[in-house]
Amino acid sequence: MLKRNRPAIGATLYFLGMIVLGLYFTFAAVQGDNGLFKRVEVRAEAAALRAELASLQAEVARMENLTTRLSDNFLDLDLLDEQARHLLGLIRADEIVIR
Predict the structure, then answer these.
(1) What torsion do the CA atoms of 69, 70, 75, 80 make, to the nearest 10 degrees?
(2) 31 within 8 A of 37, measured Cβ to Cβ
(3) 70 forms bridges with which residues in the sheet?
(4) What is the pLDDT of residue 72?
(5) Contact criterion met (CB below 8 Å) for 79 and 70
(6) Measured CA distances, 22 to 40, 86, 97 (Å)
């Protein structure tokens, strides 16, 4: 009678279970909520938001400059004239309007 050297069914199931568990954790590390792909996505979104923040800060600085130029302490007559023309549609008597 020949005796075969087959691994026991329990050892086979154990190693199969460890392989499946390893594959699950690998998948979770790459595709999961805190995985590598999500990290790349979050970094790209953060870069886009930083760019938007810089754009908004530039816009705020421009508006603050215009506000300062129209304040009581510092009155820019050219800017006041430009705003009156734009908002109120005013022109001087010696000007010709071409549309």
Answers:
(1) 110
(2) yes
(3) 75
(4) 78
(5) yes
(6) 23, 68, 77
Which amino acid would we find at residue 62? R
Do 38 and 32 contact (CB within 8 A), yes or no?
A: yes
- Distance separating alpha carbons of residues 53 and 31, to the nearest angstrom: 29
pTM above 0.70, yes or no: no
What is the spatial distance between Cα 26 and Cα 69, in angstroms, rounded to a whole number? 60
Structure tokens at 18: 């460890």
Give pLDDT tens digits for 39-92: 999 999 999 999 999 999 999 999 999 888 877 788 788 888 888 888 887 777
pLDDT tens-digit series, residues 1-11: 556 777 688 88
Distance of CA 48 to the CA centre of its chain: 3
